[in-house]
Design a protein that fits this description.
The protein has 272 residues and is an alpha/beta fold. It folds into two domains: 138 residues, HUPs (Rossmann fold, 3-Layer(aba) Sandwich); 120 residues, HUPs (Rossmann fold), CATH 3.40.50.620. The protein contains ten helices and ten strands.
Length: 272
């Protein structure tokens, strides 16, 4: 891992995620990019205190705030190369653009910004990105501090075989973290021969990786099952392999990984 991007809106939750990102970058000997995305116009023209601001002014304010955040992170004594980028545009399009142009290996952000209750109920930009991200996305819930990523849970739906590239990347992350990977396979048809064959193939791929392997019958809500399993395993990271969906599905439904992003109290890595 060479480059980590931390997207921030300077909220307390985002600042906490920045500290997590800085420590992770230090452990991985990676560089850290602090990214703030801004709009150079009033967000609510009806408000007298939300007057029009020039893009130059907003950019300058954003750059100053980024530098203050970088200075704060540097006070921790960790020699992490940090760069700051202030970029105007829509959030999702800009995240995609900057991630591609910087060749990022990992994109990080808080699960919530300045309105955590709203994010839990209605979702957030972070959870929306899961269905669209083109690089691994690590989401940090409020209140979580970095203590290493030595115990990882990976959830796999045996009814939908994981993408081999994403699965390989998940194992690569686990190796780079020096972690044990606790695989939770969910099956809604335990007697199906294809299910057992799929489980066998996954176990073969894990031969060189320190791991545990559990198959769950898929009873109850999957996010509850996964969170309970992660807590029982004392995991400090959950990895999921989100299935890409078409626009019609995304319009009326919510993926399990997106639901987990709203509800988890453990860092969540969506690997694509």
């Amino acid at each position: 891992m060479k480059t980590i991007i931390l997207a921030t809106d300077f909220s307390p939750m985002a600042n906490q995620a920045a500290m997590f990102a800085n420590q992770l970058a230090h452990d991985q000997k990676a560089s850290l990019i602090l990214l703030h995305i801004y709009q150079g116009w009033a967000t609510d023209p009806a408000r007298t205190d939300d007057v029009f601001r020039s893009e130059d002014t907003v950019r300058a304010n954003s750059e100053e705030a980024l530098q203050r955040l970088a200075d704060t992170l540097g006070e921790g004594g960790m020699a992490v190369p940090i760069r700051c980028i202030a970029h105007e545009g829509s959030v999702k399009a800009t995240l995609r653009l900057v991630s591609q142009s910087e060749g990022a290996d990992l994109l990080m952000m808080s699960t919530v910004g300045s309105t955590p209750r709203t994010a839990q109920i209605m979702g957030s930009v972070a959870s929306e990105l899961i269905a669209e991200t083109e690089i691994p996305l690590l989401l940090i819930p409020p209140g979580v501090t970095y203590g290493g990523l030595k115990n990882v849970v990976l959830c796999i739906n045996l009814a939908a075989p994981p993408d081999t590239i994403a699965f390989g990347r998940a194992l690569g992350f686990s190796r780079s973290f020096g972690s044990v990977i606790n695989v939770l396979c969910v099956s809604y048809n335990m007697d199906d021969a294809d299910t057992h064959e799929q489980a066998k193939q996954i176990r073969q791929l894990l031969i060189q990786q320190p791991h545990t392997f559990t198959i769950n019958a898929g009873e109850g809500e999957i996010h509850d099952t996964l969170l309970n399993f992660a807590h029982d395993s004392k995991a400090n990271l959950i990895m999921m392999l989100p299935q890409m969906r078409n626009w019609f599905w995304k319009l009326f439904s919510e993926g399990e990984t997106q639901r987990m992003a709203r509800l988890t109290d453990i860092p969540l890595l969506a690997v694509v």
